[in-house]
């Protein structure tokens, strides 16, 4: 509410300005009156009223009404002997018509969403149609008021209506685009070349208009001379801005109106009506053609600019992306280099530690053998000569030495695989299995185990002793980690693409899913020594062997039911 009150003076000021501008535009329009017909070929106030509402808002309609009312009262008062009530009544009717015309125009423009009258061809075409339609409002109401107040006779209604309508249409199509052009933001900056071209075109236009309306070159009839204007305005359209074109339009209109008022020029016809009509058609055609062409051209230029800008943005984005990609590539290369270096370092450390493990386990063997032999000697000589505690201690010591021996053996096997240089050769896995069964003969017999092979095993290219080690470790585990049932070990083989896939299934205690990876790591055991004997190296050895043969090893299991160890070996 306070906002409305505080903006009131501002609005009243604007309304007053509109009323004043309308008043003077109407007086100017009356100056263009042809003879004493009271009809102007162009009625600028209709263009001003329409543009004001479209550009500055519908709120300003009272300004139009006020301006139209005052100008009608003043003109009627000056030009006739009518009584004041008649003057007021007819002026009120006419001013309502003038205001409705502009308001209707505003609503149609908004309804059809054609605010870009000089920016889009569609909007300009619609603007022209709107102008033709809305001018019917004022031209129907105005003469009606004149008839009702008996200022004109009813039989004069249609001629007056037609003149009124054509005058208003000309007013809108000539004045409104000019105002819109000055209200649109400037597109291009001036440069010397455009200034020269524009000045030259204005000079040519001036000379041409003088030739037509000042009747230069009298031998060349004016009626045909006038057609040349299309050539000149086409040049203007391609070289001038819309603001400059609006000046061209005003210059051409002024020349043609003034000369027609003075009864010269190409538009003088048999009657005043003829002259008026050809002048109006000429002015409308010139203004519409110029502005329509210029709008189409502008639209295309704007689209081109948008396209160029989009292209530029795209190029920028591509460059940006390329740069980012290059940077990422560099970073990747650097990371790769680091990775290679780290791998090399790791390989070196690995090799060193394996050599160290090999050396240590190898060197430990000798003193361990000494310890074991002397322990055995002590056991033999002093077993029953010492007290019972000493016997237990000796047993522990012998057991410890034995376990250490197994551990060192396993470690040596592990490091031997690493250092093995022996070339691969044809290995018949059926023979390998026979050796394994032989090696595990005792455990197989003791547990009554069954080892089932689905089909004959293949001959592969491999390291023979490592294959024995691999099968033995897995089958041995199958026998060792058994549950109440009699152990049963199932060996299967399948040929997949370019490798063999083996599976060894037992019906033992099984392995929890969480430990599927862990059991292949050296020294990782899932049970204590009291539960199951072992060193935790067996599967780590299997993994190394398989890796050396370019394959993979993994396990799948159901706890309490058994496990299946899978491994692949290349068939080459
Ligand atoms: P270990 O010398 O302890 O047998 P392995 O490396 O051969 O060492 O096995 C690692 C661990 O994996 C074992 O301690 C055992 O817990 C588990 N394991 C290996 N094979 C089997 C199997 N067939 N069934 C159940 N558990 C197994």
Separation of termini? 93 Å
**Strand share of the residues?**
5-15%
Task: Name the structural class.
Answer: alpha+beta
Biggest β-sheet: strands ordered side by side in the sheet = 2-4-5-7-6
Task: Describe the structure in your own words.
69% of the residues lie in helices and 8% in strands. The chain has 572 residues and is of the alpha+beta class. A 5-stranded mixed sheet has the order 2-4-5-7-6. A two-stranded antiparallel sheet has the order 1-3. A hairpin with a 3-residue loop joins strand 6 and strand 7 (562-570). Helix 1 (2-31) runs parallel beside helix 3 (61-79), helix 7 runs antiparallel to helix 9 (228-239) and helix 11 (272-382) crosses helix 12 (388-419). It is rod-shaped. The chain binds adenosine-5'-diphosphate (ADP). Adenosine-5'-diphosphate binds at residues 473, 477-478, 481, 506, 508-509, 511, 519, 525-527, 534-540, 563.
Summarize the structure.
This protein is α+β, with helices and mostly antiparallel strands and 572 residues long.
Question: What order do the helices and strands come in, and which of them pair?
Answer:
Blueprint: H1 2-31, H2 44-56, H3 61-79, H4 84-111, H5 121-148, H6 157-183, H7 192-213, H8 222-225, H9 228-239, H10 242-261, H11 272-382, H12 388-419, E1 425-428, H13 429-439, H14 441-447, E2 450-453, E3 459-462, H15 464-480, E4 488-496, E5 499-505, H16 538-548, E6 553-558, E7 562-570
Parallel strand pairs: 2-4
Antiparallel strand pairs: 1-3, 4-5, 5-7, 6-7
Helix pairs in contact: 1-2, 1-3, 2-4, 2-6, 3-4, 4-5, 5-6, 5-11, 6-10, 6-11, 7-9, 7-10, 9-11, 10-11, 11-12, 12-16, 13-15, 15-16
The protein binds adenosine-5'-diphosphate.
């Amino acid at each position: 509410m306070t906002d409305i009150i505080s903006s009131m003076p501002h609005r009243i000021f604007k309304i007053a300005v509109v009323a004043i501008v309308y008043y003077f535009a109407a007086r100017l329009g009356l100056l263009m009156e042809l003879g004493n017909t009271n009809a102007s070929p162009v009625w600028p106030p209709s263009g001003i009223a329409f543009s004001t509402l479209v550009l500055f808002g519908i709120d300003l309609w009272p300004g139009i009404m006020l301006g139209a009312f005052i100008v009608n009262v003043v003109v009627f008062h000056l030009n006739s002997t009518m009584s004041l009530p008649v003057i007021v009544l007819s002026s009120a009717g006419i001013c309502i018509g003038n205001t409705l015309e502009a308001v209707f125009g505003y609503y149609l423009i908004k309804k059809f969403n054609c605010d870009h009258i000089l920016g889009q061809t569609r909007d300009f075409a619609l603007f022209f149609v709107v102008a033709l339609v809305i001018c019917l409002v004022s031209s129907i109401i105005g003469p009606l008021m004149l008839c009702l107040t008996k200022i004109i006779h009813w039989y004069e209604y249609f001629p007056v209506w037609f003149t009124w309508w054509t005058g208003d249409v000309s007013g809108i199509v000539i004045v409104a685009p000019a105002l819109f052009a000055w209200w649109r933001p400037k597109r291009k900056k001036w440069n010397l070349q455009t200034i020269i071209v524009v000045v030259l075109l204005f000079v040519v236009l001036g000379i041409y208009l003088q030739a037509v309306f000042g009747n230069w070159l009298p031998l060349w009839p004016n009626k045909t001379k006038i057609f040349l204007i299309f050539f000149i305005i086409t040049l203007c359209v391609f070289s001038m801005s819309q603001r400059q074109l609006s000046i061209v339009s005003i210059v051409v209109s002024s020349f043609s109106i003034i000369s027609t008022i003075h009864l010269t020029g190409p538009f003088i016809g048999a009657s005043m009506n003829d002259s008026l009509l050809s002048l109006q058609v000429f002015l409308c055609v010139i203004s519409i053609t110029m502005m329509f062409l210029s709008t189409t051209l502008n639209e295309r230029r704007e689209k081109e600019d948008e396209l160029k800008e989009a292209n530029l943005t795209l190029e920028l984005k591509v460059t940006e992306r390329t740069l980012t990609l290059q940077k990422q590539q560099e970073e990747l290369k650097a990371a790769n280099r680091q990775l290679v270096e780290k791998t090399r370092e790791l390989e070196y450390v690995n090799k060193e530690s394996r050599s160290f493990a090999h050396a240590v386990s190898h060197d430990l063997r000798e003193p361990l053998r000494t310890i074991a032999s002397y322990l055995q000697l002590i056991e033999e000589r002093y077993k029953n000569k010492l007290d019972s505690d000493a016997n237990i201690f000796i047993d522990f010591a012998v057991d410890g030495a034995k376990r250490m021996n197994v551990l060192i053996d396993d470690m040596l096997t592990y490091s031997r695989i690493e250092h093995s240089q022996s070339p691969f050769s044809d290995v018949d896995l059926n023979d390998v299995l026979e050796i394994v069964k032989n090696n595990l003969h005792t455990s197989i017999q003791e547990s009554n185990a069954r080892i089932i092979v689905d089909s004959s095993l293949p001959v592969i290219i491999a390291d023979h002793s490592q294959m024995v080690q691999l099968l033995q470790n897995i089958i041995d585990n199958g026998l060792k980690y058994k549950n109440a049932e009699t152990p049963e070990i199932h060996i299967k083989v399948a040929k997949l693409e370019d490798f063999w896939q083996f599976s060894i299934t037992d019906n033992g205690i099984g392995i929890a899913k969480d430990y599927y990876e862990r059991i292949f790591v050296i020294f990782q055991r899932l049970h204590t020594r009291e539960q199951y004997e072992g060193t935790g190296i067996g599967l780590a050895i299997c993994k190394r062997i398989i890796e050396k043969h370019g394959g993979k090893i993994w396990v799948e299991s159901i706890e309490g039911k058994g496990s299946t160890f899978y491994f692949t070996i290349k068939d080459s």
